[in-house]
């Protein structure tokens, strides 16, 4: 073998070793957090010098290189999106590694180590949010124009990152005293559930309306580790009910969020028996808490309007607004007539006989009893 060929072979083998090592770290960090145990591959602080310091350095380089794009109204170029998600996944893995260290300190019941590990968890969480939040918001904004691989990687990044916060919250429920750094809102159940549900909803809507003719037909079915997604959905579902019981979210919010979780489970259960069991548990929890789980077709209307409501709503259509503005233009062109019109409406008695038919119809609309139609019109009319 020639020296050049030998050198290329050595480089290829080194790259393969690094790739296998990094893949092992990703899997180990995730499983360590799920099972709340110390890392197997990186069991102690030696990981900082071995792996995490390099990720911190690369994260700084990324931030300096792409800082100018953070507030861009334009979609990120495809190659920049790939680089962004690669760096964000590395930083996410480091966050999970910090959580694994914290769980290791809990396992050893070392008070000093627990406080130190909690501080590192918060520090790396802030690093992630400070550097990547604006970029990830752009990915959410431009989700439907990203490539299939980037869409999948974005959803998995959000789901796996916030899984750490959900596991942490479930763990801290068993302790009377919570370290101060772990009370940060970015580590809360509410923050994690909102982020996960929003990302999953993007994926579901893309699957629903894209007309994708690929073999799998769903972004979520391309997940290489559906068992991890099943864990994400299981903890998200339980957390939604905890948030509902504690009054942190309204009932209608919980219903929407749990419906998104159930819809995702319906997809993932095609390739994961665990997801199928989780879906049954979610349905049981909904029934127990008297929370309606809407699993109907999104293309079918939930209800039809009565003729009376259609007539009332028609008063607010574009033609009515155009006629009103035209009338105001005529009134404004006449000396003082607009002021007299306003004064007449301000001083007129509140009775149907003294007011135009259109005004009475709008009043009737506004006086509808509370309900979906009533709330819709309040928003439309700016009340």
Automatic annotation (TrEMBL):
<protein>
    <recommendedName>
        <fullName>Transcription factor domain-containing protein</fullName>
    </recommendedName>
</protein>
């Amino acid at each position: 073998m020639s020296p050049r060929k030998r050198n290329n072979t050595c480089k290829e083998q080194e790259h393969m070793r690094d790739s296998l090592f990094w893949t092992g770290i990703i899997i180990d960090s995730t499983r360590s957090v799920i099972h709340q145990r110390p890392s197997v591959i990186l069991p102690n602080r030696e990981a900082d010098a071995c792996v995490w310091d390099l990720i911190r350095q690369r994260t700084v380089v990324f931030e300096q290189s792409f800082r100018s794009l953070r507030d861009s109204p334009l979609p990120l170029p495809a190659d920049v999106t790939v680089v962004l998600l690669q760096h964000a996944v590395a930083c996410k893995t480091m966050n999970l590694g910090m959580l694994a260290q914290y769980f290791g300190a809990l396992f050893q019941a070392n008070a000093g180590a627990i406080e130190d590990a909690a501080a590192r968890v918060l520090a790396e969480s802030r690093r992630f949010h400070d550097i990547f939040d604006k970029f990830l918001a752009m990915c959410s904004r431009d989700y439907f124009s990203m490539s299939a691989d980037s869409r999948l990687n974005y959803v998995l990044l959000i789901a796996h990152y916030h899984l750490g916060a959900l596991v942490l919250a479930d763990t801290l429920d068993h302790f009377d005293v919570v370290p101060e750094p772990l009370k940060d809102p970015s580590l809360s159940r509410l923050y994690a559930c909102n982020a996960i549900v929003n990302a999953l909803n993007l994926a579901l809507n893309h699957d629903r309306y894209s007309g994708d003719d690929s073999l799998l037909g769903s972004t979520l079915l391309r997940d290489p580790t559906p068992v991890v997604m099943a864990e994400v959905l299981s903890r998200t579902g339980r957390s939604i009910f905890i948030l509902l019981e504690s009054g942190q979210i309204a009932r209608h919010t919980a219903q929407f969020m749990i419906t998104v979780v159930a819809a995702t489970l319906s997809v993932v259960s095609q390739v994961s028996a665990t997801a199928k069991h989780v879906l049954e548990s979610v349905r049981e929890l909904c029934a127990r808490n008297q929370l309606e789980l809407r699993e109907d077709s999104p293309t079918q209307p939930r209800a039809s309007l009565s003729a009376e409501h259609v007539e009332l709503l028609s008063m607010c259509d574009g033609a009515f607004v155009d006629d009103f503005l035209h009338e105001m233009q005529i009134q404004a062109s006449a000396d003082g007539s607009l002021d007299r019109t306003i004064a007449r409406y301000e001083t007129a008695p509140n009775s149907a006989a003294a007011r135009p038919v259109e005004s009475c119809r709008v009043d009737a609309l506004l006086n509808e009893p509370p309900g979906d139609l009533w709330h819709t019109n309040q928003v439309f009319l700016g009340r």
